[in-house]
Amino acid sequence: MRRLVPALLLLLGACAAPRAEPVRHVVVAEPELPIDVDVEDADLRDVVERFARLMKRSIVVGDDVHEKVTVKLVKVPRMEALRVIANLAKCELHEREDGALVLDQVCDIRIQFTEARLGTVLSLLGAYSGLNVIVAADVTGTVSLDMSKEGVGAMPLHFYELIVERHLHTVRRGRVLVVAKADLGPDREMPRFESHTLFQARSAPAGAWFELLERLTGHSVEHGAAPIDWSVSECSPEEVLEASALASRVKDEGAREPVPATKLPSGRSVALDLQATVTGIDKPFAIVGGQVVAEGDSLADGVKVAKIESMRLTLVEDGREAILKR
């Protein structure tokens, strides 16, 4: 990550809504037949379906569980194998009153911040509150916050409390909320677009960022010079274009860290600064060192971008792959 949060303790466990039906830990008295399991990056539901057929009983995966598992087991009792797979999927294994087995994830979120960057905390709280938040560069300072006894439900409250306590302003552009120290003017309603695109930036230069958005939208806007440093999802490029233009006009007060070196397959090291990605579209884009690139483009002598994922690039040099990520 571009900026390190001092003494930030973030312990996140998968969270799902608690089930209403009573459950108890599985206790199996009858002898169990062994099973061999050899799966790689397999959907948990497909694996569990196999167990259900072999064990001739109902096995249910929670609605909010979306996990893949990789495991190899040889001649392990079926119930023990199922417990291993549940643990790998960060699930607990329970038995319902009707005898069905249930794999579900338990809410266990403990969050503490100590002298953490205010902008980072607001971005995190906003994201977990279901908000697409852009924090402008003039939002500075640190904050200490202990939410270890409150959980996810308290995040929206803390988000808006910080807005009030620090005398910050908010303005909305469609589904994006911009937070800034400066007064950015009134909200503006925008047309809604269906989109599952993920926009991520880590101190991306304003010029390159707006060049990328211009390619996606066909529109150009007036913008400032402040680097872009946030993440939003399920918003249209048009919404992101307007919101980021607004946020970029404030004064940039953040310090920049040196670009780390990336080691290529040939052994040479190059300073490749992955600053932004736009994924979830047919043709994903990235910004590396201020340059907008797509899959198949060249970065340096003999180095090409093979694949663009969320803040992660697969590079190819002389037929060998290297990973660049943030």
Overview of this protein structure:
It is a single chain. With 326 residues, this protein is an alpha+beta fold. 21% of the residues lie in helices and 34% in strands. The chain folds into three domains: 23-104, Phage tail protein beta-alpha-beta fold, CATH 3.55.50; 115-248, Ribosomal Protein S8, Chain: A, domain 1, CATH 3.30.1370; 262-325, SH3 type barrels. It has helices at 44-55, 78-88, 118-128, 155-165, 206-217, 237-248; strands at 9-11, 23-25, 34-43, 59-61, 68-77, 92-96, 101-104, 110-117, 132-135, 142-146, 169-173, 176-180, 198-201, 231-233, 262-263, 269-270, 274-279, 285-288, 291-294, 298-300, 303-309, 312-317, 320-325. The strands form seven sheets. The protein has a five-stranded antiparallel beta sheet with strand order 14-13-17-18-19, with helices on one face. A hairpin with a 2-residue loop joins strand 11 and strand 12. Helix 3 (118-128) runs antiparallel to helix 4. The longest helix is centred in the first third of the chain and has 12 residues, at 44-55. The termini are close together.
